[in-house]
Amino acid sequence: MGLTYQQVRKYEGGQNRVSTGALLRIAEALGCTAVEIVAEVERALRPAGEIPSDGEAVEIARQIAALPVASRQSVVNIIGALSGAGVGYRAERAP
């Protein structure tokens, strides 16, 4: 890739920024696109609990909202367990 050990170490430590050319070479070596790398970095840097603004999150929210109340509660509890948030969901009961 044309990078020295010192360059990689500075990239990893945040001392130097990765140039566009280096990012493209890294992506090629990893068999992915530079966009995928940037998206993964953005996800990793997102504060815990922050709701992503991508279309996938919106679609998931729509699908969960379309479920019956009891199912929504179960799905939210499963997501909480998987994410480590452990936050339960209390739905209002229908009369």
What is the element layout, followed by pairings?
Elements: H1 5-13, H2 20-30, H3 34-45, H4 55-65, H5 69-83
Structural features, described:
With 95 residues, the protein is mostly helical. Helix content is 61%, strand content 0%. It has five helices and no strands. The radius of gyration is 20 Å and the shape is elongated. The termini are far apart.
What's a quick, concise take on this entry?
61% of the residues lie in helices and 0% in strands. It has 95 residues and is an all-alpha fold.
- How many domains, as an integer? 2
Order of helices and strands: HHHHH
Q: Sheet bearing the most strands, described? A: none
Calculate the mean pLDDT score and round it: 77
List keywords for this structure.
95 residues, single chain, disordered C terminus, mainly alpha, 0% strand, 61% helix
